[in-house]
């Protein structure tokens, strides 16, 4: 089962896949952080761990269902000459979910409804947040697993990569959540990029592939610029 440990190419594949899984999980961490911010402080860390635990379980379960995943690429029907498969449907529905949820969150932040909802914590239940995180996990898990299937030949390599990547995400989720909570502009920026990711998922569902490198580069560039703005604002606040 572990014959690949003597193969340098397999190790390169493992480390490359771990890196990609972490990158693919950044959107998941950000969305989980934003959703968990609606819960009382003492429940947020538990919700993040449970949510990422669901992400790990769903990805491993999908890896053990490789045959089913391959069948999802079989066309079910056509729309304007474009063949739509089960995978395409999941990507399109997931993209629409991301766009709708992110747009709603931006609206609540702009109109001030977000503060009211945080004050009235009874309006948001722990279970409802976990359900929303689970839906998101399924969407990103499919994308992640398909990436793993395309990069590695051994299922144990894929499972190790998923476990390590989610472990890193669990360790980093708290710091990322605190950073997003304390910087509202970062939250709006993150939600805006989640809309972009949703559009990319829908486009991918219609076989119009937007290179993820462009998306992640723009996210990283905007984050660096906004981080510089935050540093400048903090220095000005200290002077005043």
TrEMBL record:
Keyword presence, Transport: no
One GO cellular component, as annotated: plasma membrane
Pfam families documented for this protein: TerC
Keywords for this protein: Membrane, Transmembrane, Transmembrane helix
Domain of life: Bacteria
Record keyword Nucleotide-binding present: no
Spans traversing the lipid bilayer: 12-37, 49-72, 84-103, 124-151, 157-176, 188-208, 214-232
PANTHER family in the record: COILED-COIL PROTEIN (DUF2040)-RELATED (PTHR30060:SF0), INNER MEMBRANE PROTEIN (PTHR30060)
Protein name from the UniProt record: TerC family protein
